[in-house]
Automatic annotation (TrEMBL):
This protein's record includes keyword Transmembrane: no
Protein name (record): Xaa-Pro aminopeptidase
Ribosomal protein in keyword set: no
Annotated GO MF terms: aminopeptidase activity
Occurrences of domain Peptidase M24 (ranges): 139-322
Domain of life, per lineage: Bacteria
Assigned keywords, A-Z: Aminopeptidase, Hydrolase, Protease
Pfam family name, one: Peptidase_M24
Length: 353
């Protein structure tokens, strides 16, 4: 491999910490080098660089991390843009023709060290939490702006398009935009259709910027909720409160999921309701990194972000939160959105317009 840039020089304390974590992975496995090829690991290690052209395709680059250098492998048709606009300066750039296959990296593949890399991404660094907070505020503002002007006659696709536009205008990628109108309130993942919104709508958004993915949901009603709808909303908020209250250092995600399951039962939704939809997990460089499952041993720690998403037909709540030394901070907040206090926290409710 021919280097087109000087040998890597670490000038960022943040990168130095990430590199230290990866060298610890190498030391723990006895590997001489590690190949990063997945979008999650690349976004984390490359300071949020966009490693894709198509969101539906594999990254267009790979990084080889060894004890001597950080080398990025690029094809010639991508080099100029990536070096000028995306890649940090501490990389050694190794170029090949666009028609040539990727050379043997002589490194342990990322897939063989998935669990170690997952744990290396935690906890988030201060610069990452600052970026996350700005993204959360921007995403929440985007939803408020769009839902403030939405009309019952709009189609789900029109609303999804307006949300995507607002997200892109804020420099983020709309990875997931779900829209469920009145007739589709029973669906946990309502991909938008050409049907009208009707009296109520739920919007679910996952937006990515600097590699970080923020998750939030908002519900809008054209008119007042009835007593049954308010009851569902209150009980879903109580389930979320149980999940948030359970986030203490050392607790596993499996244990938090158990708390969520019991909360569903306590609130009258049934002890097995949690099985009908995933309930959340750690937030970061993937939608959930990792997702909470009954056998997930990943432990909660200060400096991690989380997104829990209790859902029942007709009710859902979801935000991205950060566990700090002083407790939980909700990142995806727009103070204009209607909220109530639940367990000492301001939580979003259905906006009755």
């Amino acid at each position: 491999m021919t280097g087109l840039a000087p040998a890597v020089v670490t000038t960022s304390a943040d990168h130095a910490e990430k590199r230290r974590r990866l060298l610890a992975v190498l030391d723990g496995t006895g590997a001489e080098a590690l190949a990063l090829t997945g979008s999650t690991a690349l976004a984390w290690y490359l300071d949020g660089a966009r490693s894709h052209v198509s969101l539906a395709a594999d990254p267009v680059l790979a990084v080889r991390v060894s004890r001597d250098a950080d080398e990025v492998l690029l094809t010639s048709n991508e080099t100029a843009r990536l070096v000028r606009e995306e890649l940090p300066g501490w990389l050694t750039v190794c170029e090949r023709p666009w028609y040539a296959g990727r050379p043997d990296l002589h490194a342990r593949p990322e897939t063989a060290l998935a669990d170690a890399l997952l744990r290396a991404r935690s906890p988030l660094l201060p610069v990452e939490t600052e970026r996350f907070a700005r993204l959360g505020a921007d995403a929440a503002t985007a939803l408020t702006d769009v839902l403030a002007v939405a009309e019952p006659s709009w189609t789900e696709r029109r609303l999804a398009g307006e949300v995507a536009r607002a997200v892109v205008e804020r420099g983020a990628d709309p990875l997931v935009v779900l829209v469920g109108g009145e007739d589709r309130a029973h669906l946990p993942h309502p991909l938008p259709t050409g049907g009208p919104l009707g009296r109520r709508v739920l919007v679910v958004l996952c937006a990515r910027r600097h590699g970080l993915v923020v998750n939030l949901s908002r519900a809008l009603a054209f008119g007042d909720l009835d007593a049954a709808e308010r009851d569902v909303q209150d009980r879903v908020l109580a389930v979320e409160q149980a999940a948030l209250d359970a986030l203490a250092p050392g607790v596993t995600l499996a244990e938090v999921l158990g708390v969520v399951g019991r909360a569903y039962a306590t609130q009258g939704f049934g002890a097995d309701h949690w099985r009908g939809h995933h309930q959340g997990g750690v937030a970061g460089y993937a939608g959930r990194d990792p997702r909470a499952t009954p056998d997930c041993s990943f432990s909660v720690a200060v400096g991690q972000a989380f997104a829990w998403n209790p859902w029942v037909p007709g009710g859902k709540v979801e935000d991205t939160v950060l566990l700090g030394d002083d407790g939980l901070e909700v990142l995806s907040v727009d103070p204009r959105w209607p909220s109530v206090r639940v367990g000492g926290r301001r939580r979003p409710v259905v906006w009755e317009r």
